[in-house]
Amino acid sequence: MEKKKIGIVGGMGSRAGVFLLKRIIDHSPAETDQEFPEIIFHNNSMIPDRTRAIIYNERSPLSDILRSVDLFNRNNVELIGMGCITAHYYYEEIAAYTDAMVLNPLQTVSAHIQRTYPGAGRIGVLATTGTIRTGLFHKEMDKHDLKVVTLHSEQQENLFMKAVYMKSGFKSAVISEEARRLMKESVTRLMEQGVDVIVGGCTEVSVAMEFQHMEVPFIDALDLLAQRIVHCCYNPISIHI
Question: Would you say residue 241 has pLDDT above 80?
Answer without folding.
Answer: no
